[in-house]
User: Fold this.
Amino acid sequence: MDSTDYKILSCLKENSRMNATAIGDRINLSTSAVLERIKKLETSKVIVKYTTVIDNEKIGKGITVFISVSLEHPKFDESFREVISQNDEIVECHYVTGDYDYMLKGITASSKTLEDLINCVKSIKGVSHTKTLVVMTTTKNDFTTIEG
Assistant:
């Protein structure tokens, strides 16, 4: 990857629907060259997918939480991951270092659905301890960094 690839990624990060002509105009590159580079970025899996960022509050999902999870033993990792991957309210799951084994990000609608989500996580076989933090305000919500 070179600085031109990073510029293309920056444009797509800003607006994944930006067309190759607009990107080319912005970074001083021909449309065909931009298309070729984007295709290479997709083929090499630098670009994994294009998506839409949704305002969760506007669709009735105004509660965001982070749930730290400890497992009794690593033998529960696979089954834990499987259950978590099937829960639509868990939008991120990270295996982490420190006092806990996993950090989950959940998005839910109400205190009742939050209670249900926490109870669901606690009931997964092998879960020994959880700690839940409720997000009050989000100052920054960026998905990746692009340097180059």
Observations:
- The radius of gyration is 20 Å.
- The beta strands are 63-71, 90-95, 102-108, 127-134.
